[in-house]
Amino acid sequence: MRSTTFRIAALASAAAFTLAACGGDDDGGGGEAGSGDGEGLTVGIKYDQPGLGLMEGSDPTGFDVDVAKAVADKLGVSEDDITWQEAPTPQREDLLVNESVDMIFATYSITDERKERVQFSGPYFVAGQDLLVAADDTEITGPDTLEGKILCSVAGSTPAERVAEEYPGVQLQEFDTYSLCVENLSSGQVDALTTDDVILAGYAAQSQWEGQFQVVGAPFSEELYGVGLNQDDERCEEINTALEELYEDGTMDQIIEDNFGAVGYTPSDANPPEIGGHCA
Ligand code: GLU
Question: What is the mean pLDDT of residues 98-116?
Fold first, then answer.
């Protein structure tokens, strides 16, 4: 059933690549907004978030990677025609606006502020902000217990912004990636790390940190994960339909089980989310 589509996609992608190679690089390598089926896609993901988006060698793994592949398939793009690119939290809007990537699947919360520069398909998942602390920490039980503590997060993330606004007594230390925060938590340079619970569960279960950390387990926000798109991209509603189909046919449940089962993460009752309402 799929092989014909795949072959056409591969041929079209090869043609597109040739054209792009001859045609200068002024559009930064991103696909043309609203272009039809069969072209390759440049997809932004995280490279350092186990269970979500992790690059080890040249094969990325994780929930966002699997959702991206499934959506691409619905758009007629085979996974062989996806070019993966790292999309760190502080760079995501810029990567979409200057068309360095076509789409971003990277634990990317839909917010009104971000919607001023980009649009979102989805949401396709709902996570919640939480805290990661040392396994033997009994003092930190929620954001109200962080007064005077050093809390690590990532610049430009919704969790860092929420802490800065709502918990001004906390000493916030911001890095570019959560994996740097995890290293600093391990060495005792910071007391806790805050971001989405599903990301924290991935680190807590990572073999290199086994037994070192615990997720506090009291989420204090709703993070609606969307597919980030350039505002001119006409595929936004088409991707919403693709996401709906992936939930209806059981693909999403399988992807959730494959990626979160192993880390012992159970999605909240806010899942599955209502899809739509965030296209430009
Ligand atoms: N979902 C939050 C955000 O988009 C935190 C996770 C991340 O930084 O990717 O800001």
Answer: 98
